[in-house]
Amino acid sequence: GSDNLIQRIEYIHEREKIDVIIPNFDAELYAFISNEKKLKEKGIAVFVPTLKQFEERHKANLYEFGEKYGILVPRSKNITNTSEIFALEKEFSYPFLVKGKYYDAYVAFNAEQAVMYFNKIASKWGVPIIIQEFVRGTEVNVIALGDGKGNTIGAVPMRKLYITDKGKAWSGISIDDEELLKITHQLIKKTKWQGGMELEIIKTAENKYYLVEINPRIPAWVYLAVGVGQNLPEALVKLALGIPVEPFKTYDIGKMFIRYSWDMIVPIEQFQSLSSLGEL
To answer: What is the pTM of this model?
Structure first.
């Protein structure tokens, strides 16, 4: 729970002084937001969205979020039971997306698949499950950083080149898309977004932009932003520490990132210690 997480951080802070924490796990963000003041008193800085910002951009609230801020968002509906799936044909046509409130999204082409994905996601993340209209087009993403006053410190759009079976980018390229940047700047200005964010957007063949998700933290592909000239993690750390930051104006277009993984060779005693005690 939230209390256990904060207690653990305080325990680590007593042994290894922590200046700044950059949360990267959606399910833990609420704990950092609600304990921001407490952490600051301990000398630990965070720069995260406000509770209002965090709540209103939830997948379950995204359609209303789009209406409020003038952004196209696919129609969606929250359901809590598999029995509701069979009545969805009145509102949605197949295929549609079955999404978890924190993670996971699958395209269902019939009711049987929708039930299977509902159970799979609910067992991991609970309910509600979000049913979202499927929009055909090219998926484009933006990593951005807001200063909490309506200013965009940096923003880099990219197009996924290779996607895993979980829908995660394993390779991508920075792109030149003025409309995408305009949407990002306006969103940060209107919401006064504080902290990092990732916008997941579908660009249709008619050049319409549909916002399908807002991740309220820096995404895994953040190093592409650094590689094209916008060191957003460094800027975020400075903002957390109250150091003035000048907005980035440009970035390199046409640069790629390619993710890779490697094996770590460790003594089993270390793995056992980490698994059972949570430390080495």
So the answer is: 0.91
